[in-house]
Amino acid sequence: VHMFKLKQQQAAAAAESAGGGGGGGGRTRTISTSRDRLLLKEMSELQEVLTQQRTTLHLPNPSVLSEFVLTISPAEGLWAGGHFKFIVRVPEAYNLAPPEVTCQTRVWHPNVSEQGEVCLSLLRLNSIDDFGWYPTRTLKDVVLGLESLFTDLCDFHDALNAEAADQYRCNPQAFKLKVSEYIRRYACRK
């Protein structure tokens, strides 16, 4: 179902970019920037990742590929059962600059602040490790990186949410209970 929806959204975006957008009083939108051309290509590549994972992509405006919502629903681990929404905004300077990602769902996590900021090396131009953003990275890397925050990339040593990281180190059981409470309160599908 999600694959079909994404294909419909891409088809609408492609039709609009080709001048077949209809409506709009005869105005047509052409894909003229390198960012838009890259995004059209990368959205197709994302389909294979989205079918394998428990992640969905939604384009609020199908003719604007540079802003979309990812919902990650981990199947296992501490955050299993939660549905975490991320807004991804792709700047005009893409792929020289990384996308900007904000978590819209409150989550008790060492790498996500209470305000929704996300700490992930590949989202930084200047990373202290060698995993920062490079022009060879794609949206597929961003999706895989965000999914990994709920599995193997969870970093308790270089935490954005120091309180969550400290709680995990000092009292792992209390940390797990708080993660569960946040999922129940903020991350359950309604």
Automatic annotation (TrEMBL):
Record-annotated UBC core domain positions: 34-188
Annotated pathway: Protein modification; protein neddylation
Keywords: ATP-binding, Nucleotide-binding, Transferase, Ubl conjugation pathway
Family as reported in the entry's similarity comment: Belongs to the ubiquitin-conjugating enzyme family.
SMART domains: UBCc
Active site per database record: C119 (glycyl thioester intermediate)
Example of a GO biological process term: protein neddylation
This enzyme's EC code(s): 2.3.2.34
Signal peptide boundaries: none
Reactions the enzyme catalyzes: [E1 NEDD8-activating enzyme]-S-[NEDD8 protein]-yl-L-cysteine + [E2 NEDD8-conjugating enzyme]-L-cysteine = [E1 NEDD8-activating enzyme]-L-cysteine + [E2 NEDD8-conjugating enzyme]-S-[NEDD8-protein]-yl-L-cysteine
PROSITE patterns: UBC_1 (PS00183), UBC_2 (PS50127)
Protein name per Swiss-Prot or TrEMBL: E2 NEDD8-conjugating enzyme
Pfam annotation, one family: UQ_con
Organism (species): Macrostomum lignano
GO MF entries: ATP binding; NEDD8 conjugating enzyme activity
Coiled-coil ranges from the UniProt annotation: none
InterPro entries in the record: Ub_conjugating_enzyme, UBC, UBQ-conjugating_AS, UBQ-conjugating_enzyme/RWD
Gene3D superfamilies in alphabetical order: Ubiquitin Conjugating Enzyme
Keyword Transferase among record annotations: yes
